[in-house]
Design brief:
The protein is an alpha+beta fold and 291 residues long. It has six helices and twelve strands. The longest helix has 20 residues. The chain is globular, with a radius of gyration of 21 Å.
Length: 291
């Protein structure tokens, strides 16, 4: 699934090309692509027509276009969603096609149909306007108003594995499985450590590493393991060449040379160095009393 850097790459591409353009035509090819818009595809189409795109936004993994109507078109890329600019995409996976007043098409392509579009109102949360469905999502580490100390305080109260907390979008948004593993590797912290047992300096450093690794990934266009994630021009990112932990099972750790380990985690996988990131010790079982 695209994480913060990949979604931000798409947002920047859209900001450069669609802001100020008017939507002149809309065609919905697949109902699942607009299932989150409860009023249905005809309503979505009618309300998008003749709107000017006034801006773009992103929080965590959510992306949106602001419109002259005062509403927001929220886009969730899901596992394989793509927002492509150019001619109308020629693929069986084209879900929604829109035409802009300069003749450019904005195509939403989604092979696995987990993503989708919806129109919604904007609300103000902590002084920032966001679409209503995004109101519950925490700020992400690249947000200028991200309060690292406040997030550390939240984490210090969590009796839960630190990796689970990094993936909780109500605690800190934008971090998915890839960048959680990379941040933990950089911080030399095992994802199975309980958040409340980690010190404030350790948690502060971990969030700093999360910011750094996602900034690095953003500079390389994000992480692409296949053709499912691309930018608005259909190009893949190449941060996968710089990954230290995620997907590196059996390869030597770049710090110490120990082979990277892979373990199952929440129907996914975790990758870490068993030497640099030792697992927490299991508490000893009490000895049975003698009779």
């Amino acid at each position: 699934m695209p994480e913060l850097p990949e979604v931000e790459v798409v947002r920047r591409g859209l900001a450069a090309h669609v802001v100020g353009r008017t939507i002149t035509a809309v065609r919905v090819n697949h109902l699942r692509a607009v299932r989150r818009h409860v009023e249905g595809p005809a309503d979505l189409t009618a309300r998008l027509l003749d709107n000017v795109v006034t801006g773009t936004g992103r929080r965590g993994k959510y992306l949106w276009l602001t419109l002259s109507s005062g509403e927001a078109l929220v886009v969730h890329l899901g596992m394989s969603g793509q927002m492509l600019l150019g001619p109308v995409a020629k693929t069986e996976h084209l879900r929604v096609a829109t035409l802009l007043d300069d003749g450019t098409a904005l195509s939403f392509v989604d092979q696995r149909t987990f993503g989708g579009w919806m129109l919604t109102e904007l609300v103000t949360v902590d002084g920032t306007e966001v679409p209503l469905p995004v109101a519950h999502v925490a700020r992400d580490p690249l947000d200028p108003l991200f309060d690292r100390a406040a997030v550390v305080k939240v984490l210090r109260g969590k009796h839960s594995e630190i990796k689970r907390q990094l993936l909780d979008q109500t605690v800190v948004s934008g971090i998915g499985n890839i960048y959680a593993d990379e941040s933990l590797w950089r911080a030399k912290v095992n994802g199975a450590r309980i958040a409340e047992t980690l010190t404030k300096p350790t948690l502060t450093a971990l969030l700093g590493h999360a910011s750094d690794v996602m900034t690095d990934a953003l500079g390389q266009g994000g992480t692409s393991f296949d053709s499912l994630y691309v930018n608005v021009n259909g190009e893949s990112g190449y941060f996968d060449r710089s990954l230290d932990a995620y997907g590196q099972e059996g390869r030597p750790c770049r710090r110490c040379g120990t082979p990277i380990t892979r373990e199952k985690f929440m129907n996914r996988s975790s990758y870490y160095c068993p030497k640099c990131q030792p697992r927490p010790r299991q508490p000893r079982s009490p000895r049975p009393r003698s009779t």
